[in-house]
Amino acid sequence: MTFTLNELAKHVDGQVDGDDECKIEGVGTLQGAQAGQISFLSNSRYGKYLSNTKASAVIINERYQSKCPVNAVIVDDPYCAYAIIAALLHPDKPVSPKGIHASAVVSDTARIHDQAIIGPLCVIEDDVTLHAGVIIGPGCVIGRQSSIGENSRLEANVTIWHDTQIGKRALIHSGVVIGADGFGIAEQKNGHWIKVPQLGRVCIGNDVEVGANTCIDRGALGDTVIEEGVKLDNLIQIAHNVHIGAHTVIASSTAIAGSAKIGKNCKIAGAVGIVGHLEITDNVVVTGMSMVSKSITEPGVYSSGTLLEKNSSWHKNAIRMKQLDDIARKVKKLGSE
């Protein structure tokens, strides 16, 4: 796709500084972009590359306008503007062929809209509903009585277990498993374990994206709920009966234990652990490698763990950490004498 700079600027409510008829046909980094491509600058650490860029244009805010040696699109948020422009210049390729592939196995009781697409080697079980514009990639399995909303897309090898409800415009990446049993087990007196039936569902709202190899377990009795606009990275574990509020984003390798409730517009960084049965209120940020072991009732930024340092220093500090309780007791005793 090719657009003029003026056409692109209109899509992001930006102003052109330079040749508004400049033709743009692709995107690139400040360091690597060539003529015909547009780049962006949103992080100040990359400002040093602006003066030598070979891009035909750069998306910037007013702060860098006087320093930009090429055409510019001036916006308040260059990164969001870049996301919109990149999608315009590089739209998803159409999927073909249309309809149901000959190798797919589709139940007679499934309700498949005539504008849905089912790829090779898929299995669509009883009473599944696929709405208009749904795309099911190769090798997917959709369990009985599940429903997938309009214009949602499953990439290759996604497994959707029974009774799963997915809203409109969802994007589910390869390897995702939605609706498998949660880790429900009861310990007997003899130390053996009994499986607890997982009888709930998974309900996913509109405009949700789920990254590759993420797992979302079905509820034990009630449902596991992912509200609208949630964005999940790769390799996330979401246990049974978790509830994630609208427009929350969660980065890779985070694990959320059963029945935890996360509010709206939260940002959970990578490799965070969240204990079960707690609540996190709206508008909370949890930084990477943190352990959330109790409820968070006030918005803000929360962290735990220790910063990276040389092993020799870390080992000494780890030993001293174990001594803190004894030291505190001694200080308290000295204060009372």
Walk me through the topology.
Blueprint: E1 3-4, H1 5-11, E2 15-17, E3 23-24, E4 26-27, E5 37-40, E6 57-60, E7 71-74, H2 78-89, E8 105-106, E9 111-112, E10 117-118, E11 123-124, E12 129-130, E13 135-136, E14 141-142, E15 147-148, E16 153-154, E17 159-160, E18 165-166, E19 171-172, E20 177-180, E21 185-187, E22 193-195, E23 202-204, E24 209-210, E25 215-217, E26 224-226, E27 231-232, E28 237-238, E29 243-244, E30 249-250, E31 255-256, E32 261-262, E33 267-268, E34 273-274, E35 279-280, E36 284-286, E37 291-292, E38 300-302, H3 311-322, H4 324-336
Parallel strand pairs: 4-5, 5-6, 6-7, 8-11, 9-12, 10-13, 11-14, 12-15, 13-16, 14-17, 15-18, 16-19, 17-20, 18-23, 19-24, 20-25, 23-26, 24-27, 25-28, 26-29, 27-30, 28-31, 29-32, 30-33, 31-34, 32-35, 33-36, 34-37, 36-38
Antiparallel strand pairs: 1-3, 2-7, 21-22
Q: In a nutshell, what does this entry contain?
A:
The chain is an alpha/beta fold and about 325 residues long. The protein has four helices and 38 strands.
Could you explain the architecture of this structure?
By secondary structure, this protein is an alpha/beta fold. The protein has three domains: 3-89, 3-Layer(aba) Sandwich (Udp-n-acetylmuramoylalanyl-d-glutamate--2,6- Diaminopimelate Ligase, Chain: A, domain 1); 105-302, Hexapeptide repeat proteins (UDP N-Acetylglucosamine Acyltransferase, domain 1, 3 Solenoid), CATH 2.160.10; 311-337. It has four helices and 38 strands. The strands form six sheets. The protein has a ten-stranded parallel sheet with strand order 8-11-14-17-20-25-28-31-34-37, with no helix packed on it. A hairpin with a 5-residue loop joins strand 21 and strand 22 (193-195). The model has no long low-confidence stretch (mean pLDDT 96).
